[in-house]
Amino acid sequence: MSQRVTSRIAPTPSGLLHLGNAFNFLLTALLVDFQDGQLHLRIDDLDGPRVDAASVEDIFVQLEWLGIDYDSGPSGPEELFKQYSQQTQMERYSDALQSLRKSGTLYACECSRSEIRQLSKSGNYPGTCRLKELDFQNDKLSWRVHVPEQTYVSFKTFTHKTEKINVSQAMGDFVVKRRDGIPAYQLASVMDDLELGVNFVVRGEDLWASTAAQLFLAQCLNDPVFPATRFVHHRLITDNSGNKLSKSAGALSLKMLREKHHTPVWIYQETAKTLQLPFEGIRTLDNLKEVFRSAMLQKNGLLTLLEQGK
Ligand SMILES: [Zn+2]
Predict the structure, then answer these.
(1) 212 alpha carbon – ligand 1 mean position (Å)
(2) What separation in angstroms does the CA of 298 have from each of 132, 275, 292, 302?
(3) In a domain, 120, yes or no
(4) Distance 98 CA to ligand 1 centre (A)
(5) Which domain does 193 fall in, by range?
(6) By CB distance 3.0 to 4.6 Å, which of 231, 242, 253, 274 could disulfide with 16?
(7) C-alpha of residue 111 to centroid of ligand 1, in Å
(8) Three-state DSSP state, 186
(9) What is the Å distance from ligand 1's center to 177 Cα?
(10) Alpha helices for 147-279 (secondary structure H)
């Protein structure tokens, strides 16, 4: 309890940021601010081929526009690539993969995505290669972690309640190293959080299964700290047809919203609305912070909203 709250916002530079990203960043910043914690900017740029300079630039431009301050992390693209890029951390990821492999929890897999789609209704990997003992040295294969049936992990919610997730059901045997040799998101994400000392994660409810995967990996890597991390899984902002926003969100991209509204007031108000807070009077980020803070102190519906699991 005495440890300082450390959180991060973790955009992926593979398209323009959208309203859903802004909501996640603002909610994270509000919660960190409320707990007098520290906020780190982490850019998930591991997927080299899908990272483009315009998307990287977009992250810094929109964060500044939204007025979101962070305590550590890159101040711009140049510093990102020099110092903070996940590309500079490959050795750490690779060490983790080797230690997982040595502990006997991994196996190599030759299945393609379309093969898996045909075999599995749930989308979870059906375990086809589990007993094949394929060669880890074959660089055309992915590596999967074996998740035994009925494997549960637990985590703490915002108010320190314990939630349990069945990892085998949520994720199945998931990929830790992709066929193209790049460490999978689940592995890189948990390794980065461990490195940064993250103990508080705010993410969309669509990442519920990822939470399970990452906690499981931390456990396999014998990390004693990560299980104490508190997680908030928030609802997602959807478009008019109720679909989750994507990186090609068009009119709801922050770039477009900025051209339309000029100031971020509309976004602050949308954020308050989504959190069921009074929004009409909000003109600045400080206004939003005040409204948020007073709702948190009243321990009313807002806390319930943050406690909602999936
Ligand atoms: Zn396979």
Answers:
(1) 21
(2) 57, 14, 10, 9
(3) yes
(4) 19
(5) 6-307
(6) 253
(7) 4
(8) helix
(9) 13
(10) 167-170, 185-196, 208-220, 254-261, 265-274
Of the listed ranges 78-87, 160-169, 239-248, the least confidently predicted one is 239-248
Residue 1 has pLDDT above 60, yes or no: no
Residue with tokens 């990102």: 80
For residue 272, what is the domain's CATH number?
Answer: 3.40.50.620
CA of 183 to the centre of ligand 1 (A): 17
Separation of CA 140 and ligand 1 centre (Å):
12
pLDDT top residue among 50 and 293: 293
Phi, psi of 145 (to 5 degrees): -100, 135
The alpha-helical segments, DSSP class H, found in the chain are 19-34, 53-66, 77-79, 90-102, 113-119, 167-170, 185-196, 208-220, 254-261, 265-274, 285-297, 301-307
Q: Total domain count for the chain?
A: 1
pTM equals 0.94
Domain assignment present for residue 1? The answer is: no
Q: Give the span between the Cα atoms of 17 and 225, in whole angstroms.
A: 31
Alpha carbon of 115 to ligand 1 centroid (Å): 9
Please indicate, yes or no, if residue 86 is contained in any of the structural domains. Answer: yes
Structural domain contains residue 15: yes
